[in-house]
Every structure is written in structure tokens, then in C-alpha cells.
Amino acid sequence: MTATKAQTRRVLLASASPRRKELLESAALVVEVRAPYADESWPGGSLLAGVKEIARRKMAAVGSFAGVGIAADTVVVLGKNLLGKPADRQDAARMLRALSGREHKVVTGFCVRRGRTERLGAATTRVTFRRLSQQEIARYVATDEPLDKAGAYAIQGLAGAFVDRVVGSYTNIIGLPLAEVLRAMEAVS
Questions:
Q1: pTM higher than 0.85 for the full model?
Q2: 73 flagged as catalytic
């Protein structure tokens, strides 16, 4: 009896994000979730170094495990401002007003580890929103969809209608640059 690839390719995801889990499952991986309790305070330094460091902290926080582990951290960058998850509906509306009619970057750092072998990486995607009306913002915020999302939006959800242009990895905007993570997995296997 032979096992299918999906049965043999198991990973530990150091994240409670259902979106990251779904992305990994879409690559025929069996995903075990272990939410990390890590220091997510901004470490300073460059943007790419910062998101990679937070992803590394998340990986370290889950402790030991067998096989391949994956952790990630995503931020939305508008000009020089980092937009994390909004504190509440008012904060979400503020972020969406700032993003309206403008280009921003979505940056995800990731850590892939197997035993003592670790690969850190990051991906940047440019996203341009069309101009949003106050009514659109209010309706979207009322759905609560933006409340647990970096930058206060989910491109794979209702906010997909806000996007004029994407340059780079679409899955990165969802929270995990899948192609880059799969390459890192091969490198540590």
C-alpha cells in the first residue's frame, strides 16, 4: 500500500490563521496548527529584517516538533506607516480611508524550519486600491471582516472589490507567499 503525497507531506503551522492553513492545504499538505505565543513587538531595523525576525520568534515559540514547521508575519505598509491588525472598527475605518485610492505594500516574512535547518525569507506585493466612498468603508467595516486582518482588509473576501491592481504574489496578500514558502520547504527537506 502506498501513501499519497498529501498523506506524507505534513507540516506544522505556527499560526492560528485559518487563511494560512487553507493556503498550505491547497498545496496538498496536511497541516497541524500550533498557535505561537511570541513577542510580536517590532524589532527595529529594515522592514524585511523585521518581518523575518517576528516569523523566527513565532517559530521558536512553538517549541520542538517533528518534520517541517512554518511561521509567518504580515504587515501592510503605506508610505512609512506599518498597518497591523486594527484595534477596533474605528481603527479599521481609519486604515481603509488611508488606503483608499493609493498604492501600498504587503510584506510577509516567513521562517521554515526542519530540525536545526532554517530558511528565512520575505515577499513584497504592491496593491493599489480604487477610491472608496465613506459608505463603502462603513458597510465593509460593519461586516467585521477587516478586524483580524493586517491593513484591515481581506483581498480574498469582500475587499477584493476594492483592488485595482496587484503586482507580485497574490497569496502573499492573504498572508503567506506560497510559492516562496514551498521553495524554502524543499531547501530544508
A1: yes
A2: yes
Three-class SS of residue 134?
Answer: helix
Please say whether the structural domain 5-188 has been given the CATH code 3.90.950.10. Answer: yes
Tell me which residue of 109, 65, 86 sits closest to 159, measured CA to CA: 86
| Residue spans of beta strands (DSSP E) within the chain | 10-13, 30-33, 68-78, 81-83, 103-114, 117-129, 163-167
Residue by residue, pLDDT tens for the chain (189 residues) are: 344 443 458 999 999 999 999 999 999 999 999 999 998 888 888 999 999 999 999 999 998 899 999 999 999 999 999 998 999 999 999 999 999 999 999 999 999 999 999 999 999 999 999 999 999 999 999 999 999 899 999 999 999 999 999 999 999 999 999 999 999 999 998
DSSP three-state, residue 150:
helix
The catalytically annotated residue of 39, 73, 88, 148 is 73
